[in-house]
Amino acid sequence: MPEDGQWEDGRRSNDSWSSGSWSIGQLAERAGVTVKTVRFYSDRGLLPEAARSGGGHRRYGPEALERLRLIRSLRGLDVPVPDVGRLLEQEDALDDALEGVIDGRLRELGTRLTVLRWRQAALRLLRDCPAEERAERLRLVGGLPTPPSTAALARFWRRWLPARLPARVVSAVVEQAVPQLPDDPAPAQVLAFARLHAFVSDSCFDAGPGPDGCRPEAHLPGKGYRPAVLYEGLPEAFALASAELRAGRAPRRGEALDCFVAVHAAALNTRDSAGFRRGLGRMLAAEERIDHYWQLAAEVMTPPPGPPEPTPGAADNWLRAALTDATGLGRQARAGRGQTGA
Q1: Sheet holding 51-52, edge to edge
Q2: Measured between alpha carbons, how far is 236 from 244 in angstroms, rounded to an integer?
Q3: Distance (Å, rounded) from C-alpha 2 to C-alpha 9?
Q4: What's the pLDDT score for residue 331?
Q5: What is the full DSSP assignment across 77-133?
Q6: Peptide bond into 148 cis (omega under 30)
Q7: Helix 312-327 vs helix 329-340: angle between axes, to the nearest 10 degrees?
Q8: CA distance 249 to 256
Q9: From the CB of residue 274, how many other CB atoms can be counted at a distance below 10 Å?
Q10: What's the CA gap between 331 and 342, in Å, rounded?
């Protein structure tokens, strides 16, 4: 008895070719695939059978050939077999289903390409660095997630922010504070992100002075601050200061500083005054800072050798410097250092 996939009489049957009723071998030949491939898809119910021969062998019609060509096209795009099956089940809405599968494959391929580009940049970083720095850099880049993710940075900010902030405020702060990762980074950007990832993984909650580490005054209970008011208002002040930074202007009086002070006054439920500004300047000058985070975030966002993109941290520093100069605290500090010979 001939095997399934051979001509039933051992010869090519012209009648079967012309009638459109083909054996598994004939279908494989016409489609340009192996009998094993046809059997694989047939066993999974992806190829319709026209009939069975008198000996129980599978017979296929033109619709099976068209289906097999479609399957081959999808597999040529690396669409997984289960997804192929789900597509074929939606024959009446195949175009819409196919669009969804293509979009999914594009996203997956984009992720894979991003992983490869980050890996390439990391290898270049290790290849081109001085030999004495290679082990340390290897440790840093080896600690990065694959694919690259900012999830650890987001967790850092959710811990750093004061408790009981509205969810919408937390989301807005995290969105502004966490840098968007480049799809095709330079080696320097990979190094900056590796250092940033290490920083948030070993944060100042446990390393900073005092029980509250690097948390600012506004986060501490009993200080009179309304954190939600503060964090809702600061983005406007930061946007104004960022415009000043892009223009290359030194810290100065003006709209950005007035907005910054007004936000702090509203958060403390008080009014802006010269005395308030001096007190605010002294309080902010004494706070613990996380400038290292913002410096690294700027390096991650900016491909070398371009000028760093202003971050909320850079805007905050500009505003604090403007406040210090406007209240005369900077002159007092410089005078104090002159008197002590510092």
Answers
A1: 22-23, 58-60, 51-52
A2: 13
A3: 8
A4: 58
A5: TT--HHHHHHHHHTGGGHHHHHHHHHHHHHHHHHHHHHHHHHHHHHHHHHHHS-HHH
A6: no
A7: 80
A8: 12
A9: 10
A10: 14
Contact 59, 53 (CB under 8 A): yes
pLDDT in tens, 104-141: 889 999 999 999 999 999 999 999 999 999 999 999 99
Which tokens in the block code for residue 95? Answer: 């175009």
Determine the pLDDT at residue 332.
Answer: 55
Instruction: Enter the pTM of the model.
Output: 0.75
What is the C-alpha separation between 154 and 208, in angstroms, rounded?
Answer: 20
Helices (H), the chain: 14-19, 24-31, 35-43, 62-76, 81-89, 94-128, 131-142, 151-160, 167-177, 187-201, 227-246, 255-267, 274-286, 291-301, 312-327, 329-340
Residue 46 has pLDDT above 50, yes or no: yes
- pLDDT-derived band at 184 (thresholds 50, 70, 90) equals very high
More confident residue, 328 or 321: 321
**In angstroms, rounded to a whole number, what is the distance separating the alpha carbons of residues 96 and 91?**
10
Structure tokens at 176: 């502004």
What is the predicted pLDDT for the residue at 212?
Answer: 46
Distance CA 244, CA 226 (A): 27
Encoded amino acid at 319, one letter: L
